[in-house]
Amino acid sequence: MNREQWRPFLKLWSEEWIVGRDPERDGPLDDEVVRDGWLGFAPASADEVAAAEARLGRTLPPSLREFLLTTNGWRDAGTFIYRLAGTSELAWLADSDEGSGWIDAYSDTEFADEDEGEEPEGQILARALRLSLDGDAAVMLLDPADVDERGEWAGYWLASWSGRGPERFDSFHDLMYDQYTSFHRLRGRRT
Fold this sequence. Notes:
Layout: H1 3-20, H2 31-36, H3 46-56, H4 62-68, E1 74-75, E2 81-84, E3 91-92, H5 99-106, H6 121-127, E4 129-130, E5 132-135, E6 138-147, E7 153-159, E8 167-169, H7 172-190
Helix pairs in contact: 5-6
């Protein structure tokens, strides 16, 4: 997905999130979100993206690069992720404060389904790029070792309370689209 596609999708997401929020149950929105009708931030510059890539030692996948060039971070990425990182906040999960807890919890071999040829979840988490900064015991990640022919890294959504391991998506775009549809599914159940 390129910038010309990200912008209208994220604008629609913002509008639907703002209209669909329940003031009695949901936290207050930032003043600029209400004023601008936008859950995002100013776009990252090409230099900011390049600096993040240099710091991380990897070229970011195309859908994440284009997302960051559209908005340098994001608020409310679905119901359980409250904030996505901008270029300066992207970090390897293993290097983040909360990373060792996630990695340790999923490094137990009982979670791996080696009979089906699946890689142990702890190994995936140990090398993952952390995208989310704040969430309800949930995290969004990208796996730099699981790359498709377009250069997209597999995305993962993981919540400690879900009773499941990391849920895999083909790309950052697919992960974000799932978060977009999830807030509609969950909000629909509340009404």
